[in-house]
Design goal:
By secondary structure, this protein is of the alpha/beta class. Helix content is 46%, strand content 15%. β1 and β2 form a beta hairpin. α1 runs parallel beside α3, α4 packs across α5 and α6 packs across α13. It is globular. The chain binds nicotinamide-adenine-dinucleotide.
């Protein structure tokens, strides 16, 4: 479905150009930008595995972009199109994302060139474990230095296999659970990680809509409810974003684009039902309550309020950027908008909320999981009942002082101690809001910066520059 497009640069070159643009816009030291852009290490591994058809050799990468903070953190992608340039580009985006979101990690990314759909669960387990062993035995999988997480084509299942493989190599490492995040909750994971990126997109949009002076730039008005949304990719990110936004904020998901085409319904699609259909049939074709269009790419250009590309990179490119009619693009997928498309869309006045901000929810909650694994204790275990006791005391005091009983729901809300999921959601919401506050502040202090992506990159570059400056390797980030 993806058209061959006219992009003149690779994914990595495009990300580097975004750094150059931000460096120029904020008058930062170009030499420092050069140091920041350079990736620190990349390993390629090849390993043979016996599958049903015989022995196959698999190729995978782990790219580390920055190590100013450790561990270096990034998603692990299983897809047939995975390659070194893509892995390095995604590792660079991770550096900038972590810096913007104030996550104390370096940036990394992993990838395995594989079509997971072609293998049985047993084969996939063997392949994943072997890949993990290849990385761990060379120090590229380790709780202190290199920590993967789910990305396209992987989920909590693969993360559990990876943790298990690491454990079998290093049983004496008491922090072994922290070698990977996004694990199942009963295997050292944290509640709220699976849906974190989609939830983060919802929090980002809610925050954007809290600021009328920002909203007006996109031509959108009147809150999230009723906004007409198109989502590309109903996987982990796209599904959760669409589900939360439609169920809780009452947006209308008027189109969903998947690999085999798109579904359209002006009244709003039931996201849960579409996902169910996708899981059962492997595509969106044949879903009853919608019009089906085989040319999914054309639907990206349909008129709508908000477009959320949440499938893969380069979907909005030099080929189609002139045709996009959305008022606001929310970049759920990493690199969904290419550098050249970004230039075109900015000229056309289409507002973009960039990937390094809006999809930072995954790594944010991964950070919470990693911290939880190192502390060997769930969040809230010490204070939850204490908070409940204090809430109960407040409620009783108010009742005694006013001589009135409190309505049951109000009392329950005051008394309730936060669950671990409440704490995770609160920390995620705070992270998304603080990052946007920084972006807005940067734009206020640098009126020549007119777009959120450039502002986000300026913040990230300054933070990275400061780290290098502290080591005497660069000019001050300020
Ligand atoms: P996923 O594999 O769960 O879902 C991807 C979905 O996109 C699938 O449903 C797939 O069928 C669909 N798709 C693939 N190619 C398509 C095409 N050409 N047109 C339409 N649909 C297509 O992956 P994911 O984890 O949801 O990741 C999606 C994007 O979000 C990636 O760019 C990833 O790097 C980024 N991301 C993911 C996370 C995370 O926590 N999973 C965090 C941050 C960023």
């Amino acid at each position: 479905m993806t058209e061959a497009h006219k992009e003149s640069m690779s994914f990595l070159e495009g990300v580097d150009r975004m750094v150059d643009r931000a460096t120029l816009a904020a008058g930062l030291d170009p030499n420092t930008a050069c140091i920041i852009k350079v990736g620190s290490a990349v390993i390629q591994v090849k390993f043979p595995i016996r599958v049903r058809s015989g022995v196959e050799v698999f190729t995978g990468w782990w790219a580390i972009h920055s190590t100013h903070r450790l561990p270096a953190k990034g998603g692990l992608r299983f897809a047939p199109h995975v390659n070194q340039d893509e892995t390095e580009a995604l590792s660079a985006l991770m550096s900038y994302k972590c810096a913007l979101a104030d996550i104390p990690f370096g940036g990394a990314k992993g990838g395995l060139m594989i079509d997971p759909a072609k293998y049985t669960v047993d084969e996939l387990r063997n392949i994943t474990r072997a890949f993990a062993m290849e990385l761990a035995s060379r120090g590229f999988l380790n709780p202190a230095t290199n920590v993967p997480a789910p990305d396209m084509g992987t989920s909590s299942r693969e993360m559990a296999w990876i943790a298990d493989a690491y454990k079998s190599l290093f049983p004496e490492d008491m922090n072994q659970d922290a070698c990977v995040t996004g694990k199942p909750v009963n295997r050292g994971g944290i509640p709220g990680r699976a849906e974190a990126t989609g939830k983060g997109i919802q929090f980002a949009l809610q925050e954007f809509f809290r600021h009328p002076e920002e909203l007006v730039k996109s031509g959108l008005v009147d809150g999230l409810s009723g906004q007409r949304v198109i989502v590309q990719g109903l996987g982990n990110v796209g599904y959760h974003a669409a589900k939360f936004l439609s169920e809780e904020d009452k947006v209308k998901v008027i189109a969903i684009i998947e690999r085999d085409g798109a579904l359209l319904n002006e009244e709003g699609l039931n996201v849960h039902d579409v996902r169910q259909h996708l899981a059962e049939s492997g595509g969106v074709r044949g879903f009853a309550a919608a019009e089906y269009k085989e040319d999914g790419n054309a639907v990206l250009n349909m008129e709508c309020d908000i477009l959320i590309p949440a499938a893969l990179e380069s979907q909005i490119n030099a080929n189609n950027a002139m045709q996009i009619q959305a008022k606001l693009i929310v970049e759920g997928a990493n690199g969904a908008v290419t550098y050249e498309a970004d230039e075109i869309l900015r000229r056309r006045g289409i507002v973009m909320l960039p990937d390094v901000w809006v999809n930072a929810g995954g790594v944010t909650v991964s950070y919470f999981e990693w911290t939880r694994n190192l502390s060997h204790m769930r969040f809230g275990r010490l204070q939850r009942r204490f908070d409940e006791l204090r809430g109960s005391t407040y409620a009783t005091a108010i009742e005694e002082m006013t001589g009135k009983g409190m309505p049951g729901k109000l009392r329950t809300d005051i008394v309730r101690g936060a669950s671990e999921l409440d704490l995770v959601r609160s920390g995620l919401d705070d992270t998304m809001r603080m990052a946007f506050a920084d972006i807005r502040d940067t734009m206020k202090r640098n009126p020549q910066i007119k777009d959120y992506r450039t502002a986000a990159f300026v913040i990230a570059i300054k933070k990275l520059a400061q780290s290098y400056y502290d080591l005497g390797l660069a000019e001050s980030g300020e």
